[in-house]
Amino acid sequence: MYYENKKDKNKDKIAIIAFLGLIIILLCIVIIKLDYSENSNTNIQTNYEATKLSTNDEQNVEKDPQKTIQEVVKSVVGISKLEQNGNSIFLTDSEQKLGLGSGVILSENGYILTNQHVAGNKYGSCYVTLENGTVHNGNVIWADTNLDLAIVKITANKLDYINLADSDKITLADEVYAIGNPIGIEFQRTVTKGIISGIDRTIKLADTESYMEDLIQTDATINEGNSGGALINKDGELIGINTVKISDAEGIGFAVPINIIKPILEKLITNNKFEEAYLGIYGYDKEVIPYLDSSLNITSGVYIATILPDGPLFNKEIIIGDVISKIDNIEINKMNDLREYIYSKSPGDTVKLKIKRGNQEFEKDIELGYKV
Q: What share of the chain is helix, strand, coil (3-state, %, to 5)?
């Protein structure tokens, strides 16, 4: 009896051991499968994340501002109305005596943007000094005194040129840099840093009845020789051309937004020429109207202040005091918007103007003229 019980117990022990062994084997198999599955998923996830991070890095990588500026300064040039003779021009009034200023290269084949008061009028000439010190004869192929902008052409190729930003997308407190030649070649390509202090500013020019509108205000230091130089964002893209400062205040300078010039540049690069369409008016934004006549209440559109006798609007039933609210069904609220649209057209093109006169509105088709 005792022997049989012992035998039965041995059988039970063997069964238990076999059962436990089987469980251990099954557990090992499960662990191996899980480990394989995790490794496979890890490999797939790693590949996916690597690709994702690479894409994000390409889209959101931040440029080194110092390196960007070092590259951009090559596209800033010196412009003078008189040829420099190689001697020092370290003069406190060098900007007035030599017409010294700055400019920015817009294309590799020598189109340069600057101020009209630096380069002079259309068909005039000036001297352009590149970053490497070479001096080129420059021809003024386009200029606008109201915008204080001019485009100069030099005979050169493979120049370092600047990329253009969208000046409509700038915001207050954006970081900016001004680059130019503040008082002559001894301080050429001086870089100052600041922020955008204001947008769509209007200023009245000293001792004149003229206004400059839609300007970018910055506290980056701008001096007289900086005129025509670059105002760039932190990515090294051109957002404006430095043009004027408030002489009796510190840290208040202004630049002309770059978008105004884009239609002209596009035609120059595409056709190697620009024939300027002409509406023949000068107008004001609604912000300027209180300076002209406090009794006027204009909430939108562009106020017609002058109709030139050689322009297509002369004797076309449109009068001073009318307001242009739309052109070709595009709403217009800034004089620069109107200019930019006209620059995109060609002489002889017809545009439809929507005019407000008091409580009345009417439309007029106008054939654009040619500005000599």
A: 30, 30, 35
Judge whether 117 counts as a catalytic residue: yes
- 28-42 burial, b at 16+ Cβ within 10 Å, e below that, comes to eeeeeeeeeeeeeee
- Angstrom distance (rounded) from CA 300 to CA 331: 9
Per DSSP, the residues of 133-159 read S-EEEEEEEEEETTTTEEEEE-S--S-
- Identify the active-site residue in 227, 285, 322, 337: 227
Is residue 64 part of the annotated active site? The answer reads no
Phi, psi of 43, deg, nearest 5: -65, -45
Mapping DSSP to helix (H, G, I), strand (E, B) and coil, where does residue 163 land? coil
Q: How far is CA 20 from CA 25, 32, 33, in A?
A: 9, 18, 20
Q: Is the pTM of this model over 0.85?
A: no
Chain segment 223-279, per-residue pLDDT in tens: 777 889 999 999 999 999 999 888 777 889 999 999 999 999 999 988 989 999 999
Pick from 139, 69, 142, 132: which is nearest to 110 by CA?
Answer: 139
CB of 339 within 8 A of CB of 147?
A: yes
Angle (deg, nearest 10), helices 262-271 and 335-343 = 10
**Which is catalytic among the residues 117, 136, 174, 325?**
117
* Residues paired with 38 in a beta bridge: none
Q: Active-site residue among 144, 148, 285, 337?
A: 148
CA–CA separation, 119 vs 138, rounded Å? 9
Is 247 annotated in the active site?
no
Task: Express each pLDDT in 12-58 by its tens digit.
Answer: 566 666 666 666 666 666 555 545 444 444 333 333 232 222 223 33
B/e letters for 151-184, b = 16+ CB within 10 Å, e = fewer, are bbbbeeeebebbebbebeebeeebebbbbbbbbb
Hey, what are 230's tokens? 């670059």
The alpha-carbon radius of gyration of the chain (Å, integer) is: 34
Extract the tokens encoding 354: 């929507």
Alpha-carbon distance 243 to 269, whole Å?
Answer: 24
Q: Which residues contact 98 (CB under 8 A, 6 or more apart)?
A: 80, 81, 82, 84, 89, 91, 184
